[in-house]
Amino acid sequence: MLDNELRDAVRSLCARYGEDYWQAHDRDRTYPEAFVRDLTQAGYLSCLIPEAYGGAGLGLREACAIMEEINRSGANSAACHAQMYTMGTVLRHGSEEQKRRWLPGIAAGELRLQAFAVTEADAGSDTTRIATFAERRGDRYVVTGRKIFISRVQHSDLMVLLARTTPLDRVEKRTGGLSVFVVDLREAGDALRVVPVETMINHETNELFFDGLEIPAENRIGEEGKGFSYILGGMNAERILLGSESVGDAHYFIDRAARYAGEREVFGRPIGQNQGIQFPLARAYIRTRAAAALRDEAVALYDAGAPCGAEANMCKLTASEAAWEAANAAMDTFGGYGLASEYGIERKFREARLYLVAPVSNNMVLAHVGQHVLGLPRSF
């Protein structure tokens, strides 16, 4: 499917879910089940799964187009985006048996892999210091510990989990001793306690408590102790995809605000004639185009199998900042009406703020670029 055809098809699907739909879910803090089901049935959430396993066999470029158009429509792809970037860990590092066991069901919509459990309260952005531990006992691993800000757990069948299998004080490099598992949440029972975390947006996220959760050894992805390197590829895809969502958010704000500025008249002329309205929107648009260009560079590297850590991180930073700039320009354009929920601006305003700090803080992105691109001393 050509890029324009794909974008048109996604827009057509999203058009069935207007502002009233998203307002209702935002107000009631409920999961957009119908929307996610339609995306799944249309094959969009399995676009990265090879055709041999029932997916569309597309690249990250197409996945980014899907995410961008979803958010540009006014929808919120955070309800389901993880199913795309969690694929990277299984596709690149899973065994053939694991791929055949899980991927066809995910592609068909029979299984959901929407949860990605890495972050811990005491480790923060320092992933190497996570303490959740998976102890090998025969043909199983027994997990104890806790995770925070783990989203969509209550709407997933499977979850990717990063845990220590060797204590931090017993590894040569702090990135060692971490392993990746696929957890079947349907079998977790009382060994996994899920506690919802209320946030300022309708984003289903949770704190998890593991108390002797047993995982079959056959559910470990790749070699024991090498999990940190395995999830990096998934993290790069995550940053690029979320950057695409921010590009979509920015276009949503600019599209809405430019249209409103051309129609709204005060003092006998459209408010868009005023430079105080026009220039911020123009600047936000330019920055959005620049973010999209950097996203496209990162996508090209990723799809070619080339290193893209710096580009993925820079894409996420520039896109999230462009979306936030556009959000503020739109809020100023709409004035008091921007705060009225019926217009959708205030909902998307809250949603756009998230990506300045998650899934990685933009300050961490700056530290990465300073150290690994510019060759400056490590800042932390």
Strand content: 15-25%
Biggest β-sheet description: 4 strands, mixed
Task: Name the CATH superfamily assignment of the largest domain.
Answer: Butyryl-CoA Dehydrogenase, subunit A, domain 3
Widest beta sheet: strand line-up: 1-4-5-8
Tally of separate domains: 3
What is the CATH first-level class name of the largest domain?
Answer: Mainly Alpha
The fold-level CATH name of the largest domain is Butyryl-CoA Dehydrogenase, subunit A, domain 3
**Helix-strand pattern, N to C?**
HHHHHHHEEEEEEEEHEEHHHH
Write down the overall mean pLDDT.
Answer: 96
- What helical percentage do the residues reach? 40-55%
The helix count comes to 12
How do the strands and helices of this protein lay out in sequence?
Layout: H1 3-14, H2 19-28, H3 33-41, H4 60-72, H5 82-85, H6 87-93, H7 96-108, E1 113-117, E2 133-137, E3 140-151, E4 158-164, E5 178-184, E6 192-197, E7 205-216, E8 220-221, H8 227-263, E9 265-266, E10 269-270, H9 275-303, H10 309-334, H11 345-353, H12 362-373
Parallel strand pairs: 1-4
Antiparallel strand pairs: 2-3, 3-7, 4-5, 5-8, 6-7, 9-10
Helix pairs in contact: 1-4, 4-8, 6-8, 8-9, 8-10, 9-10, 10-11, 10-12
